[in-house]
């Protein structure tokens, strides 16, 4: 992945009448990057993708791709190609004919086009499928055909509009891994639109989290998960427990008094927006809270609680635990290992926690 930007957006706005769909978007996407636009329905992520593709005009601002202003460049002349959510596969054509559709205006000889189709199908794991009827394919195979059809034109940017949303969970997880491998092999920039937080975290080099037409935070997956810059981002990326807190002092470290957890100190990098004195909110992820089972010892701080709810998922058990001084139960996730029991509702227990897992958010 190159450090230089392939795509640059400056002050990009999009209006549909009175509706402000994109608000002052500032964004750089690097060459060879797997970049995701993540957010709830209606946040503007697909509009932004379609703007890059050239299917939507800008109301204001600048869009550059590979150093060239795209203001007057139509979609079919941009160095991009798009895989739609529906895949847009032609059912009356064979797999090879679908993949070759983008080459219909290409002046290359038929034999050269056929080689390109075969190479594209091999790239997506469909070697030997060229003669098969498109309507006879599974969902995952149709998705691969759509990818091959887009990649055969050798775009500099591949745009993916929720391409996995129609697949079942097992196939979706398999295709996530295959897309990562494919992107690394071809080395081009992928831009993925998704509302699935887990999908974005798994696949992306960087993620832009969008709300109401604006970018709430843009960072690598680990930073977004561990150091969200707002309660809204923290709440959207995975699960988070939120606790009222009071900042009592801030210097080299930040001193806090946290509801249910008591007094403690955190490092300054655990306060992404600074640490002004007064009321605040602290976030802590469920997997960083640990139930201390009978016979176990921990050097971490502990609090007492009572199990309020249990959800068993095979490899994991999710607990809600009521803790004195906290209005809502704390959410915990515990991996199920040999010898570790699953607790019943109503069981008194102890929870251990570490100050390094806390993140200070705006009140």
Explain this structure.
22% of the residues lie in helices and 36% in strands. The protein is built from 8 helices and 20 strands. Strand 1 (5-16) and strand 2 form a beta hairpin. It folds into 2 domains: 5-226, 3-Layer(aba) Sandwich (Rossmann fold), CATH 3.40.50; 239-363, OB fold (Dihydrolipoamide Acetyltransferase, E2P) (Beta Barrel), CATH 2.40.50.140. It is globular, with a radius of gyration of 25 Å. The chain has 363 residues and is an alpha+beta fold. The longest helix is centred in the middle third of the chain and has 18 residues, at 169-186.
Fraction of residues in H or I helices: 10-25%
Q: What is the average per-residue confidence, as pLDDT, rounded to a whole number?
A: 92
Q: How many strands, what sense, and barrel or not for the largest sheet? A: 6 strands, mixed
- End-to-end separation: 38 Å
Strand order of the largest sheet: 6-7-8-3-9-10
The radius of gyration over CA amounts to 25 Å
Tell me the number of strands.
Answer: 20
Separate helix tally: 8
The structural class is alpha+beta
Which spans have pLDDT < 50 for at least 5 consecutive residues? none
Q: According to CATH, what is the class of the largest domain?
A: Alpha Beta
- Estimate nothing, just give the exact number of structural domains: 2
Strand-residue fraction? Answer: 35-45%
CATH topology of the largest domain: Rossmann fold
N to C succession of SSEs:
EEEHEEEHHHEHEHEEHHEEEEEEEEEE
Shape: globular
The fourth-level CATH homologous superfamily of the largest domain is: P-loop containing nucleotide triphosphate hydrolases
CATH architecture of the largest domain: 3-Layer(aba) Sandwich
């Amino acid at each position: 992945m190159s450090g230089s930007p392939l795509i640059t957006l400056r002050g990009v706005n999009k209006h549909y009448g009175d509706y402000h769909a994109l608000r002052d978007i500032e964004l750089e996407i690097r060459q060879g990057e797997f970049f995701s636009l993540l957010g709830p329905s209606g946040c503007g992520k697909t509009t932004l993708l379609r703007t890059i593709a050239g299917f939507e005009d800008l109301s204001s601002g600048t869009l550059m791709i590979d150093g060239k202003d795209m203001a007057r460049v139509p979609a079919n002349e941009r160095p991009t190609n798009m895989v739609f959510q529906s895949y847009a596969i032609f059912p009356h054509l064979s797999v090879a004919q679908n993949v070759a559709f983008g080459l219909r205006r290409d002046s290359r000889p038929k034999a050269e086009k056929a080689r390109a189709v075969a190479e594209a199908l091999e790239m997506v794991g469909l070697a030997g499928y060229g003669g098969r009827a498109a309507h006879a394919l599974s969902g995952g195979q149709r998705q691969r055909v759509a990818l091959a059809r887009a990649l055969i034109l050798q775009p500099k940017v591949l745009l993916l509009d929720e391409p996995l949303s129609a697949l079942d969970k097992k196939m979706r997880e398999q295709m996530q891994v295959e897309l990562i491998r494919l992107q690394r092999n071809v080395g081009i920039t992928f831009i993925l639109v998704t509302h699935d937080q887990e999908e974005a975290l798994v696949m992306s080099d960087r993620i832009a989290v969008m709300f109401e037409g604006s970018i709430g935070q843009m960072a690598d997956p680990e930073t977004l998960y561990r150091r969200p810059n707002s309660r809204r981002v923290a709440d959207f990326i995975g699960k988070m427990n939120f606790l009222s807190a009071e900042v009592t002092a801030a210097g080299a470290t930040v001193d806090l008094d946290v509801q249910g957890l008591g007094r403690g100190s955190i490092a300054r990098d655990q306060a992404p927006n600074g640490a002004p004195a007064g009321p605040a909110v602290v976030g802590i992820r469920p997997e960083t809270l640990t139930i201390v089972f009978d016979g176990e010892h921990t050097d971490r701080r502990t609090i007492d609680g009572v199990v309020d709810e249990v959800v068993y998922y095979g490899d994991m058990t999710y607990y809600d635990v009521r803790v004195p001084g906290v209005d809502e139960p704390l959410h915990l996730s515990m991996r199920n290992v040999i010898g570790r029991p699953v607790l019943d509702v109503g069981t008194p227990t102890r929870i251990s926690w570490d100050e390094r897992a806390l993140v200070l958010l705006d009140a």
